[in-house]
């Protein structure tokens, strides 16, 4: 009995890492994923890690431009804690962790700096600048901008183009010309900012997305033509074939509707078609390599009601191009 126990225990112990230096401890993981930390905390973490691996303590005068530790390899300057002063009477720098996923909710009264704060966060993730960050691997950003006045509302996050970041703005086709003219006025646009229609391929369309794009509210009474549309979509889904908008249109054309029903259905279909790409148009990519995409989520011309999408409107702050 004892021998069987010892053999089984030994087999399990081979999977136990214990305090193996190559394994992440729970304490290290907690520090590694913290969203915000001060420069003093980072210096203490670096010093502790250096002592534990035998390389000796780091120097107190180590600043933001020194090599980052393995636990906090990427970060950016977000602001200063003006209530906590160091030994020299200076405010303590606060850093945002750009090496671990996190979420943030920014709130405040008008003019309190919400857009400015969000801009600093975006810059820390997108721009490699040794003056204010450690960022060996800049990431791709996606900003959802929502405003009821879609034709005249410009996302301030697009101003990152003036810092050399490639920015692509996706807009509804009906608002394309108005928004392109507005974005063309952005400072520093040259070669860095493009505005393109947001067009969906057939494989990107689902029943829920199509109903959303047709501004159909399922909480209200369902008109006859919408019941027919939903039935056709369900039947096509049951067949298990790849969705084709052309096939959907053919099946819908075979149905007969009264004059009033037909006109209302055509209006919603035209709204849906304004977001659909043709067979000859290239596939839309959401992300921009080492850049940022801004999705303008306001309702298109002819759309009814709010589409329920909540997004972010970012401002540009901290480092402005001159």
From TrEMBL:
Top-level taxon of the source organism: Eukaryota
**Residues annotated as region Disordered?**
16-35, 42-64
Compositionally biased spans, kind Polar residues: 44-55
Q: What is this protein called?
A: Uncharacterized protein
Q: Which organism's genome codes for this protein? A: Oleoguttula mirabilis
């Amino acid at each position: 009995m004892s021998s069987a126990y010892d053999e089984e225990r030994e087999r399990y112990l081979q999977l136990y890492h214990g305090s193996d230096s190559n394994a992440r401890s729970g304490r290290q993981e907690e520090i590694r994923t913290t969203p915000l930390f001060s420069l003093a905390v980072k210096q203490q973490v670096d010093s502790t890690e250096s002592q534990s691996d035998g390389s000796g303590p780091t120097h107190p005068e180590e600043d933001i431009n020194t090599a980052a530790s393995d636990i906090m390899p990427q970060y950016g300057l977000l602001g200063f804690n003006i209530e906590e002063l160091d030994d020299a009477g200076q405010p303590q720098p606060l850093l945002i962790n750009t090496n671990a996923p996190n979420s943030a909710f920014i709130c405040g009264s008008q003019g309190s700096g919400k857009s400015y704060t969000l801009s600093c966060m975006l810059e820390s993730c997108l721009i490699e600048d040794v003056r204010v960050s450690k960022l060996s691997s800049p990431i791709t950003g996606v900003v959802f901008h929502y405003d009821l006045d879609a034709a005249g509302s410009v996302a301030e996050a697009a101003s990152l183009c003036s810092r050399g970041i490639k920015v692509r703005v996706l807009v509804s086709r009906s608002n394309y010309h108005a928004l392109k003219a507005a974005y063309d006025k952005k400072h520093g646009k040259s070669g860095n900012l493009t505005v393109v229609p947001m067009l969906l391929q057939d494989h990107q369309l689902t029943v829920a997305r199509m109903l959303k794009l047709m501004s159909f509210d399922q909480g209200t009474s369902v008109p006859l033509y919408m019941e027919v549309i939903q039935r056709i979509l369900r039947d096509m889904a049951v067949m298990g074939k790849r969705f084709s908008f052309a096939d959907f249109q053919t099946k819908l054309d075979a149905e007969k509707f009264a004059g009033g029903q037909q006109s209302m259905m055509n209006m919603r279909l035209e709204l849906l078609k304004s977001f659909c790409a043709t067979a000859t148009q290239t596939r839309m990519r959401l992300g921009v390599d080492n850049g940022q995409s801004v999705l303008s989520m306001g309702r298109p011309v002819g759309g009814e009601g709010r589409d329920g999408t909540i997004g972010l409107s970012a401002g540009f702050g901290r480092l402005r191009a001159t």
